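Predict structure. Chain length: 189.
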Amino acid sequence: MRVVIDLSENDLDHFRDAMRRAKEAAHSLTPDDITAAARQLLEDSKDKELPDFVAQRLIKLDTMINMATDQSWGISDDERKEILSALTYFADPNDAIPDDIPVLGFLDDAIMIELVVEELKHELDAYEDFRAFRNQAAEESGVEFAGELNRQDWLDQRQRELLDRMRSRRGRDRGGYGGSRGYSLFSAR
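Prediction complete.
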């Protein structure tokens, strides 16, 4: 069975207001308090039987928490503040639907996660790619965790991959203007 929820602008205003209230309530919380509260939400959800929609969103919440706290990722203070600001909703014990209500308790959290994920989509995609890079490096080197690798290492690797792909394509297309004769319009002879 598939259930689709279309959120109107009024519905989105409800979630924006909830986020605003959560941010106001969290103004005295430290970044560690915010991430600890979001981690606690994940911990509390482990003992619950959750719909797949909710469970899949909670995995994304875990990724957001990791992105905000992973020192190897090396995000700027402004980027970290943006992520922490998004996580404040999950630090609010008085969210829209109390989490202890069976089946529906985490529905508002899942919707909010989906909205936050949409807003941070590109940052999350990059972080997931970084984690895959780091995990592959750990696997290739036979260590459990390649924690010494950082964002710059990842960027350098991506740059090498792009340059290799460019060179490979250039080599493949080397026939150039002269076709199979092997010279290019731009070759110096």
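Summary: The CA atoms of residues 37 and 126 lie 25 Å apart.
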